[in-house]
Structure prediction request, 77 residues.
Amino acid sequence: MSKARTIRFTDQLDSMVDEYTDKNGLKVNQLVNIAVKKFISERNTIKLEPIEASDSAWEKGIKKSFKKHRKAMDELA
Prediction:
């Protein structure tokens, strides 16, 4: 048994959905079912790449974080 649901797409995503369904001969409901099933059943992780401790980007990021969140850091200390 299926259940009716309402979804809203942004304008940009809506046009992409229309284009995709037209090219692939799908209905929007079919596309949404396929996409949701795939999203839920597959692992959704972000793969992070470690950076070297000597990397200047690391140092800049740390300094920026401390500067931006100085009050919070002081309260934690």
